[in-house]
Design goal:
2 strands; 4 helices
């Protein structure tokens, strides 16, 4: 039985894992310039999603936040990503 209900969910979890790692990394773990490049790349990709794709991602991130058992990671999902008028906004 698969752990995730869909490929989209699995990939969203992987993306959040990467962003969570970057968020918690110090300069000794990851070069700050490289971290910015990764974050800008993700932001660019999200900006290119269709409205339907963006809605799917927003819904999925909301579901992930509700289901997250780790309080710090749940806070990261809620604090760093919030939804305004069905638009994904990075806080």
């Amino acid at each position: 039985m698969p752990v995730y209900s869909s490929l989209s969910h699995a990939l969203a979890e992987a993306l959040i894992d990467v962003l969570w790692f970057i968020e918690g990394s110090g300069d000794e773990q990851m070069d700050p310039d490289d971290a910015v490049k990764v974050l800008e790349g993700v932001a660019h990709l999200v900006s290119k999603l269709s409205s339907d794709q963006r809605s799917e991602l927003i819904d999925l991130l909301g579901t992930m936040a509700e289901a997250e058992s780790d309080p710090a990671r749940r806070d990261f999902l809620r604090r760093r990503f919030f939804w305004r008028d069905r638009s994904l906004v990075r806080a």
